[in-house]
Amino acid sequence: MVELSVSLMVLVVGVTGTLSTIASTAAVSDSARETNLAYLEAQQAVEQLRNIDFDEVVARYNDDTTDDPAGKTSPGSTLDLTEGELAEHGDATVTVLFPYLDETTAKVGEDLLGVKTRGGAGEDVLTVQVRVEWTGTSGNRLVELETILRRP
């Protein structure tokens, strides 16, 4: 009888540990899938920025509607998510930022390497940051992708 009790206890501990591991793996898998989808959204936003005339990037992707190029659609700093699983999160957002540019004074900023960054006439590079935020299976999540756009 004692052997049976010990055997059952070992079996219960083993099954409980296995089930716990399976549940944890599933949660990590969901989180990794969401992160991958967020990076894909950020990459699509960067490609969208690369397809815009360099001199118009800041004007079209900032929140100031007075500097939008005439006759062109300017989405502003918040982009629509593409179709997909991450888009189903009602609170998911994609935001375009110009981290080294003071848009209020239109002054040229510098990145960490001292490279001047202004998306206007006469400048050759612009640092752009794309941020994807959402509430996922493990809480509030954030993915940031930073790139440098260069004048062709």
Shape: rod-shaped
Rounded to the nearest angstrom, the radius of gyration is 24 Å
The amount of helix comes to 25-40%
| End-to-end gap | 81 Å
Low-confidence stretches: 105-114, 118-122
Work out the helix count: 2
Q: Proportion of β residues?
A: 15-25%
Strands, total number: 6
Strands of the largest sheet, in order across it? 1-2-5-6
What does this structure look like?
It is a single chain. The protein is an alpha+beta fold and 152 residues long. The protein has one domain (2-150). The chain is built from two helices and six strands, in the order ααββββββ. The chain has a four-stranded antiparallel β-sheet, covered by helices on one side. The chain is rod-shaped, with a radius of gyration of 24 Å. It starts with a helix and ends with a strand.
Key words describing this protein structure:
alpha+beta; 23% strand; single chain; 152 residues
Give a short summary of the structure.
The protein is α+β, with helices and mostly antiparallel strands and 152 residues long. It has helices at residues 2-50, 57-61, and strands at 78-79, 93-97, 109-110, 116-117, 125-136, 139-150.
